[in-house]
C-alpha cells in the first residue's frame, strides 16, 4: 500500500522535470511528424513519432496524477523551444529524437533514485523505463536504416556517368566530334569542347 503523504522535495522536483520533459518531447515529436508529412514518400518514423507524442502526453498525465494524489506542488519547469527549421532531413530528426530519448532516460533514472521509497511511483517508472529502452532501440534502427539509404543515394549519384550526348550545349547539336575537338561545318574551324 502507498501513502498519501506529499513526496519529498527531491522527488517532487524530479517528478515535475519528468512531466515537463514528457510534454516537451510530445510537442517536438508531433511537430517533426507533421513537418515530414508533406514529403512525397513519408518516412516510416512519422507514424511512430505521432504515436510517441500521444504516449508521452499519457505518461505525463500519469505522473501528474501521482503529484495530485499526494497533494504535491505541480510546477513543471519551462524548457527551451527546439528550432524546427534546423530539422530538414530524416537523419536530423532521428538524431534529435535519439538525443531526447537519452535525456529522458537520464531524467527518469534521476526520478527513480529520488523515489526509492515510493512503491506506487516505482511501478509506473519501471513500466515507462521499459518503454524507453524500446524507443531507444527503435531510434537506433531507424538511424541505421536512413544512413544506409543516404549512403546508397550518394553512391548512385557518384556512379551515374553523364551522357555526352544529353549534356551537349544546344547550339553545338548537329556538329561532328573528332577526338577532343569539334569540327563545325566551316572548313578548318576547330573549337575546344570545353
TrEMBL record:
Keyword list, A-Z: Iron, Iron storage, Metal-binding, Oxidoreductase
Sites binding Fe cation sit at: 101, 132
- Per the record, the coiled-coil ranges are none
Q: Which GO terms describe its molecular function?
A: ferric iron binding; ferroxidase activity
CDD domains, from UniProt?
A: Euk_Ferritin
All copies of domain Ferritin-like diiron, residue ranges: 5-150
Task: Please give a single GO biological process term from the UniProt record.
Answer: intracellular iron ion homeostasis
Task: Give the reactions, separated by semicolons, that this protein catalyses.
Answer: 4 Fe(2+) + O2 + 4 H(+) = 4 Fe(3+) + 2 H2O
Q: Member of which family? A: Belongs to the ferritin family.
Main role?
Stores iron in a soluble, non-toxic, readily available form. Important for iron homeostasis. Has ferroxidase activity. Iron is taken up in the ferrous form and deposited as ferric hydroxides after oxidation. Stores iron in a soluble, non-toxic, readily available form. Important for iron homeostasis. Iron is taken up in the ferrous form and deposited as ferric hydroxides after oxidation.
Q: What is this protein called?
A: Ferritin
The species is Rattus norvegicus (Rat)
Tell me the lineage of the source organism: Eukaryota, Metazoa, Chordata, Craniata, Vertebrata
Amino acid at each position: 500500500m502507498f501513502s498519501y503523504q506529499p513526496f519529498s522535495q527531491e522527488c517532487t522536483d524530479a517528478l515535475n522535470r519528468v512531466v515537463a520533459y514528457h510534454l516537451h518531447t510530445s510537442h517536438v515529436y508531433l511537430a517533426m511528424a507533421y513537418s515530414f508529412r508533406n514529403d512525397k514518400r513519408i518516412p516510416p518514423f512519422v507514424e511512430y513519432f505521432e504515436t510517441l507524442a500521444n504516449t508521452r502526453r499519457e505518461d505525463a498525465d500519469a505522473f501528474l496524477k501521482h503529484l495530485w494524489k499526494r497533494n504535491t506542488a505541480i510546477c513543471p519547469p519551462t524548457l527551451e523551444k527546439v528550432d524546427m527549421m534546423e530539422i530538414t532531413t530524416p537523419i536530423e530528426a532521428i538524431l534529435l529524437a535519439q538525443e531526447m530519448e537519452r535525456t529522458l532516460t537520464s531524467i527518469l533514472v534521476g526520478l527513480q533514485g529520488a523515489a526509492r521509497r515510493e512503491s506506487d511511483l516505482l511501478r509506473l517508472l519501471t513500466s515507462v523505463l521499459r518503454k524507453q529502452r524500446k524507443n531507444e532501440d527503435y531510434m537506433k534502427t531507424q538511424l541505421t536504416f536512413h544512413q544506409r539509404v543516404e549512403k546508397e543515394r550518394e553512391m548512385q549519384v557518384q556512379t551515374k556517368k553523364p551522357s555526352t550526348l544529353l549534356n551537349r550545349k544546344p547550339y553545338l547539336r548537329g556538329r561532328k566530334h573528332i577526338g577532343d575537338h569539334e569540327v563545325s561545318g566551316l572548313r578548318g574551324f576547330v573549337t575546344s569542347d570545353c
